[in-house]
């Protein structure tokens, strides 16, 4: 692996750590409301967040294969878990599976087009895939 790919991989991983921490905090703050959610919804949300937290811990310790499994389980609970798709895209970058990374990054981006982290990762993967026209649209 050349130096540029290593730099890109390390940069993406570090920014994902910053993003994930910030996203979970913002969601926790914005989800406070007066209407209690149904019990199943609460337990599923709790389980999803536990899976994400455990997956992040595994990522930090280098157990990427098991982290991937936990993110996929979280997606089974909540198919619109944009942060899970984003993290899976980062894992695929670390593993050198850029096609899968691009697919996961696209899903994260489409779920939240206003998120600059999702946009940046997806645009970088499009650029790496030589899809310069699409990448340029996202970089604007």
Account of the protein in words:
The structure is a single chain. This protein starts with a helix and ends with a helix. It has helices at residues 3-30, 39-61, 64-77, 82-95, 98-111, 116-128, 132-139. With 140 residues, the chain is mostly helical. It has 7 helices and no strands.
In brief, what are we looking at here?
With 140 residues, this protein is mostly helical. The chain has seven helices and no strands. The mean pLDDT is 82.
Number of helical runs?
A: 7
Which class best fits the helix and strand makeup? mainly alpha
Q: Report the end-to-end length measured between terminal Cα atoms.
A: 29 Å
Helix-strand pattern: HHHHHHH
Form type: globular
Number of strands: 0
Contiguous runs where pLDDT drops below 50 for at least 5 residues? none
| Overall pLDDT level | 82
Percentage of residues in DSSP E strands? under 5%
Radius of gyration: 15 Å
Most strands sheet:
none
Summarize the helices and strands and which ones pair or pack.
Layout: H1 3-30, H2 39-61, H3 64-77, H4 82-95, H5 98-111, H6 116-128, H7 132-139
Helix pairs in contact: 1-4, 2-3, 3-4, 4-5, 5-6, 6-7
Fill in the keyword field for this structure:
140 residues; globular; mainly alpha; 7 helices
